[in-house]
Amino acid sequence: MVQVKSYKLPPTTLIPNSPYPLLHYPGLLSGEALKPDQIHEKLAQNGWTTHWIFRYGPTQKSHYHSGAHECMTVLTGTATIRFGVADTTDDLEESTHGSGREQGGIEVQAKAGDVFILPAGTAHKTHDTTPAEFALLTPGKGKGIEAEDPKKALSEIKLDGFCMIGAYPKGSLWDFAEGQENDGHFKEVWATPKPERDPLLGDAKEGLVGLWVDHEAAPKRTSKL
Q1: Cα-based angle 86, 95, 83 (whole degrees, multiple of 5)
Q2: Are the C-beta atoms of 101 and 200 separated by less than 8 Å?
Q3: What pTM, to 2 d.p., does this model score?
Q4: Which of 18, 10, 20 is nearest to 208 (CA)?
Q5: Which residue numbers in the chain have pLDDT < 50?
């Protein structure tokens, strides 16, 4: 039975977040199913496209994607992922472990086999990772696997530290918004079309097909910094 954790994250002063919930499937994948080439194949079957594998460094800037839903699957390692709020300083240490962030949001402990599905607009920041240097491990620039045989290229990647594979609904392009870029236009972010299938669960009602119910009313914004 699939375990699903669902989190509703309200908009903040800087971040749209989404009326759709953030979904977390703890330990969904293991063994052969956790290999990048196998995940890539499953994603493609469900209408999602693999864009990247990143090995994460100690921390990063909080950011969101204004026009694309995102699926992140943890391949190796452990980390903390903060969702729902923006950084309020460029000092990464202060925004990670100090007061340089908006109030609110949630932090989730992530480990190999976990899957996260982020509706467009959801802020996220990965930090306190298994020690390693930040690097893009897939060929290309992180917006698609630029290889003659993507599946083969994925199977040959050496994974170490905290690594995730990222995918987006077919035809989606992602941006890197840090906060306030869409001020006054949150509804446009929320209007990003709902995918027809869950990236890994397909038509199963346990996934986004059943949990992302069409929304009408805009969520209430929180404004504390």
Answers
A1: 40
A2: no
A3: 0.95
A4: 20
A5: 217, 224-225
